[in-house]
Structures are given as C-alpha cells and as structure tokens.
Amino acid sequence: MPIRTGCVKICTMAMEFNDLAAFLAVARAGGFRDAARASGVSASGLSVAVRRLEAALDVRLLNRTTRSVAPTEAGQRLIERLTPVLSEMEAALDVLNVFRDTPTGTLKLNVPAGVARAVLPPILAAFLKAYPQIRVDVMVEDNFVDVLSAGCDAGIRYDERLEQDMVAIPIGPRVQRFATAASPEYLDAHGRPTHPRELLAHACLRGQFASGATPLWEFEHDDETVRVDPTGPLRSRPGAAFDLVIQGALSGLGIVHIYEELLLPHIRTGALEPILEPWWQPFSGPFLYYPGRQNLPTPLRAFVDFVKARNASDAG
Question: Is the domain of 154 the same as that of 295?
C-alpha cells in the first residue's frame, strides 16, 4: 500500500521524531528486544512508538511474527528515505562537539565475528577509556554489507572484502595466522597428524559462513599450499561458532582450525596441543574502512585518529 502524500505532509509535522527513530531501530535490529538492547529504550516503549507512527501514517510499516520483525514494502521505502535524513541530522548535531572538552556521541561499527572476538576487544577497551563520552555500537555481520545502508559509520573487513571507494587503514595485528590444535587426550587416542591431508582421517570441528558454506582448511609450508575439506561431528555458523568449536576441542571431540589468538590461551595452559604448526597459514590483518569525506562524525574521527596513533606506536 503506497503512503498517501497528503497524510505524510500533515502527520509528519505532528509526529514525534522519536517514533521515526524507534521504527528505524526496530527495522535495523530485526526485532523489538534486540532494538531495545541497542537503544536503551524498553521493547514495550518501542512497540508503542511504532504503532503510533503507523497510526499517524495510516499504513503498516512492519510485519510482525512471533519470531521475527521485517519491514513491509512501505516500511522499506520509508527506511530508504529516513536513513540519509537521520544521518544528516546526526551530522548537524555533531558539529556541537567542537564546543566540548571531550568528544561525545555514538560510533557504529560493522565487523565480522572473527574481528569481534580476536582483534577488537583490546582496541575498544583502550579507546573507550580514552574517550569515556563516546558509546560504541558494534554490529557483528560476516556477510558483505554496505555499511552506510546498514546505518553504520564504518566497517572492519579483511582486504579481499573491502568496499570500493572507501578509505581504509590497518587496525589490529598486521599478520595473523590460522592455528590448528586438539586436546592431548584426543591426540593420544587418535594420533598426531604430520601433514594436512591426514586431517581427512580425523574428526574435525568446522565453522560455516552465514550462507551455510563451509570454508576449506588451508595450509602453507615452503612452496606447498594444501586445502582440505575434513569432516567431523560439529559444525557451527558465525557468532557461536568460535566458542562451540573451541569448547568441542577442549572436550576432546576433535581438531579445531581457527584464529591463533583464540587458541593461544588454551595452548599456554596445555588444555590444547598445537599440531601442524609449520603449516599454519599467515594472512594480512584487517582494515578499518569508512567514507572518504572531509567532515567525519566526531566519534568516527576520534576512533580513526586513535587507531592511527596506535599503529604508529606499534610500528615504533
């Protein structure tokens, strides 16, 4: 059902800005509870605001089921028009930051699950201590997304998945590795592989992309590259994937192949034993990317400057 232009002109003047913001928050989060957690407003308050907005516009904006919330066609059209308007309003309010002693506002980041677990925690902890008036909202998303359309200020991705026409700066370790390990109990019972192809005879705990695709395990040694597609008793998609497969390895279910940073604490305690270490494949670290415009939102500018200073310190 199309939105009646006359109604919009009359109702927009009377409707609360917060109702529009509530609708956008719920649509982006895909539900009232997740939106409530992100916005600090109760789920019931968001529900009332969205119903009030729909009544004012005389059109349904969200399809609601017991499991999910999704925008209607009219709702999607409104999102497309609201997003740049709200971004401009936030930018207009952001200019007031120059009159404050410390930057304030919200920084919205879109990051893959691996970065959220293995790279971002120490950086965000230090940043938020340095800028206590800034709040950081992190959207964990492994799929390729348009960060601006997703309502984010910036994203973090590895170089092969960076968006075009964006400024990109290194963030976190410049070299990472995929590590392979299992519990000593598992290896005592099933043997210790000395070549990646031997993994095909072992129980391997796998992660999957959100699409359901299962990435191959890739290894490098000297001039040889080996890709294997082993099987095992457990597969998990991003988000829970890291905790589940690591816990599975700790419990003796099989072999795990994952970011080295996530396995090191368990390797140091002896709970996991590294295997095939000469074959662990290095890869370049992630990048922070954002639109190449002169006037960045103050929270994003503060974060970019913080990351650059951290990179310079690490290089020194």
Answer: yes
Return phi, psi of residue 107, to 5°. Answer: -105, 125
Measure the CA–CA gap between 313 and 102, rounded to whole angstroms: 22
The rounded distance, in Å, linking the Cα atoms of 12 and 19 is 11
Q: How many residues does the chain have?
A: 316
Q: pLDDT of 172-199, one tens digit each?
A: 999 999 999 999 999 999 999 999 999 9
Q: Would 71 be classed as within a structural domain?
A: yes
* Nearest-10 crossing angle of helices 5-14, 43-57: 130
- Please check whether residues 224 and 291 belong to one and the same domain: no
Q: Do residues 292 and 147 share a domain?
A: yes
DSSP string, 9-74: HHHHHHS-HHHHHHHHHHHHHTSHHHHHHHHSS-HHHHHHHHHHHHHHHTS--EEE-SS-EEE-HH
| 117/27 same-domain check | no
Q: What is the C-alpha to C-alpha distance for residues 305 and 270, in angstroms, rounded to an integer?
A: 39
* Three-state DSSP class for residue 179: strand
Contact 242, 249 (CB under 8 A): no
Beta pairing class for 175-182 and 234-236: unpaired
The reply to whether 227 falls in a domain is: yes
pLDDT bracket for residue 293 (50, 70, 90): low
Q: What is the rounded distance in angstroms from the CA atom of residue 273 to the CA atom of residue 264?
A: 10
Single out the residue of 220, 276, 269 nearest to residue 246, CA to CA.
269
Does residue 93 sit within a domain?
A: no
- Strand, coil or helix: 206: strand
What residues make up the domain containing 124? 100-172+285-315
CA-based radius of gyration for the chain: 23
Give which of 163, 205, 181, 204 is closest to 264, Cα–Cα. Answer: 181
Is the pTM higher than 0.85? The answer reads no
Taking only the tens place, the pLDDT of each residue in 105-138 is 899 999 988 899 889 999 999 999 999 999 999 9
